[in-house]
């Protein structure tokens, strides 16, 4: 079981727990504002953009090349950006803080 | 070749030049073919604008048959964002349980009906009906209104053999004018009324603006949905194991929807107008100010630099960064509705249909000058067999 903390653009803190699936699915199931996941998690729509808290970036690792290609055209992207449909929930994520980009 | 096989006519040009050329009504188009290049140009609205003369960014151009600006489609940022914010919540309604339940009822009853017939022409007797009935949900108007649209035939703008048909377009535009007047006289909770009551920058939307949104809603979701549905039926006819797989592994349904939409790319391309002399692609092809480019979604979605086995339907393709719904600011407003249609259609076919036989098919080949692309079928007769 991993605890995942979302901070929305309204600075609302949402703490959720899961042991499988993707971070995007967890966020959508719980109505986290700013995570839409329009494409259902196939890395096509870029509506699940988060900034990983820099001190937690080793928990998620960096974006894949395909993710980076999407993110480089996103005006809100930075070096800690991820599309969270591409982050699988595992114990390694426990305690991670994700700032919702939108 | 199998009926459901859609080859990639752009491969050689994409790899060798990165672009293609199309002369459309003496307003030539430089077609951008690679996925990365398409995304970059779609994102760069300052250099590649949508807010040109109404109809010009559509290929084939509609400047001779339409004066009304489609909204938010033919508007650039920042105004684009203001319009989009007005319509976005409405076009997300397909995510609501009640909407999905109604859509499921429509699709299940249509599938039940075709299962009793010996010979169904899919485009006219299945896809057009499905698309028109579903549109009553998107507009939030009575189901019976779909009979009017079904009566218009499969194409709003295109007649058989004629790329642009001004008379057909006039039917739609006159109809929308009437409906806006009706909603103004007698407001309800339909899309026309909601738009008439919407405000942008402190003023009400004008009738012309409402008309612009409605034309987009009708035209953008007609051929595209019809082709996605029809082509998917052809695919399942020739891949019955895909139906049984969806039955056994319903968790892959979302991936299957995205993959079918990538593979069929119902909208081949969309234009932009250059606002300055510029270049496209790593090869640096010149594009002159006030000339057109197109963002070729269909080519980008077969880009072998990004997709493994791009010319195969990989039903459970996990990472699928396709651009079939466009990319960046102008991504498809109707995508939520379209995805729900496809998702429920696949679930319903898997649950009820054992096999589909293709009896006869006539392909619809788009003529893009340098390229000929199969985009769907003019007609395809099938027999649906129950499980």
TrEMBL record, chain A:
Ranges for domain 2Fe-2S ferredoxin-type: 2-102
Cofactors: [2Fe-2S] cluster
Keyword terms, alphabetized: 2Fe-2S, Iron, Iron-sulfur, Metal-binding, Ubiquinone
GO MF annotations in UniProt: 2 iron, 2 sulfur cluster binding; electron transfer activity; metal ion binding
SUPFAM superfamilies with a match to the protein in the record: 2Fe-2S ferredoxin-like
Any one GO BP annotation for this protein: P450-containing electron transport chain
Matching Pfam families: Fer2
Claim: Cytoplasm is one of the keywords in the record: no
PANTHER family: FERREDOXIN-2, MITOCHONDRIAL (PTHR23426:SF65), FERREDOXIN/ADRENODOXIN (PTHR23426)
Family assignment from sequence similarity: Belongs to the adrenodoxin/putidaredoxin family.
Name recorded for this polypeptide: 2Fe-2S ferredoxin
UniProtKB/TrEMBL annotation, chain B:
Family statement: Belongs to the cytochrome P450 family.
GO MF, one example: iron ion binding
Residue stretches of biased makeup (Basic and acidic residues): 1-14
InterPro entries linked: Cyt_P450, Cyt_P450_B, Cyt_P450_sf
Region (Disordered): 1-25
Pfam families: p450
Top-rank lineage group of the source organism: Bacteria
Protein's recorded name: Cytochrome P450
């Amino acid at each position: 079981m991993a605890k995942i903390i979302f901070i929305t653009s309204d600075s609302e803190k949402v703490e959720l727990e899961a042991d499988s699936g993707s971070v995007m699915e967890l966020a959508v199931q719980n109505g986290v504002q700013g995570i839409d996941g329009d494409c259902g998690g196939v890395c096509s729509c870029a509506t699940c953009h988060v900034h990983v808290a820099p001190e937690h970036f080793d928990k998620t690792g960096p974006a894949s090349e395909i993710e980076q290609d999407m993110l480089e055209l996103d005006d809100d992207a930075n070096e800690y950006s991820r599309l969270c449909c591409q982050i699988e929930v595992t114990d390694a994520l426990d305690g991670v803080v994700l700032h919702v980009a939108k | 070749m199998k009926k459901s096989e859609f080859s990639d006519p752009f491969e050689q040009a994409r790899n060798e030049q990165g672009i293609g050329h199309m002369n459309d009504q003496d307003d030539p188009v430089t077609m951008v073919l690679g996925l990365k290049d398409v995304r970059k140009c779609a994102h760069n609205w300052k250099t590649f604008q949508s807010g040109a003369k109404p109809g010009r960014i559509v290929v084939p151009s509609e400047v001779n048959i339409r004066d009304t600006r489609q909204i938010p489609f033919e508007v650039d940022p920042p105004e684009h964002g203001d319009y989009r914010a007005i319509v976005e919540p409405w076009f997300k309604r397909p995510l609501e349980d009640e909407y999905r339940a109604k859509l499921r009822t429509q699709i299940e009853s249509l599938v039940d009906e075709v299962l009793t017939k010996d010979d169904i022409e899919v485009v006219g007797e299945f896809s057009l009906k499905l698309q028109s009935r579903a549109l009553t949900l998107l507009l939030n108007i009575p189901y019976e209104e779909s009979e009017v649209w079904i009566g218009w035939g499969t194409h709003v703008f295109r007649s058989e053999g004629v790329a642009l048909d001004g008379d057909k377009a006039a039917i739609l535009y006159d109809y929308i004018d009437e409906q806006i007047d009706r909603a103004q006289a007698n407001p309800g909770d339909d899309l026309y009324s909601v738009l008439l009551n919407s405000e942008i920058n402190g003023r009400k939307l004008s009738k012309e603006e409402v008309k612009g949104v409605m034309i987009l809603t009708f035209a953008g979701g007609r051929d595209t949905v019809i082709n996605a549905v029809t082509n998917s039926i052809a695919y399942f006819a020739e891949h019955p194991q895909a139906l049984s797989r969806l039955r056994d592994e319903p968790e892959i349904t979302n991936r299957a929807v995205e993959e079918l939409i990538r593979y069929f790319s119902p909208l081949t391309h969309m234009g932009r107008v250059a606002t300055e002399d510029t270049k496209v692609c790593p090869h640096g092809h010149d594009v002159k100010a006030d000339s057109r480019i197109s963002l070729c979604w269909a080519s980008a979605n077969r880009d072998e630099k990004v997709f493994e086995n791009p010319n195969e339907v990989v039903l459970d393709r996990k990472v699928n960064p396709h651009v079939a719904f466009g990319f960046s600011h102008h991504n498809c407003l109707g995508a939520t509705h379209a995805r729900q249609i496809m998702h429920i259609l696949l679930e319903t076919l898997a649950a009820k249909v054992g096999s589909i036989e293709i009896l006869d098919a006539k392909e619809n080949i788009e003529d893009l000058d340098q390229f000929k692309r199969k985009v769907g079928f003019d007609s395809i007769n099938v027999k649906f067999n129950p499980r």
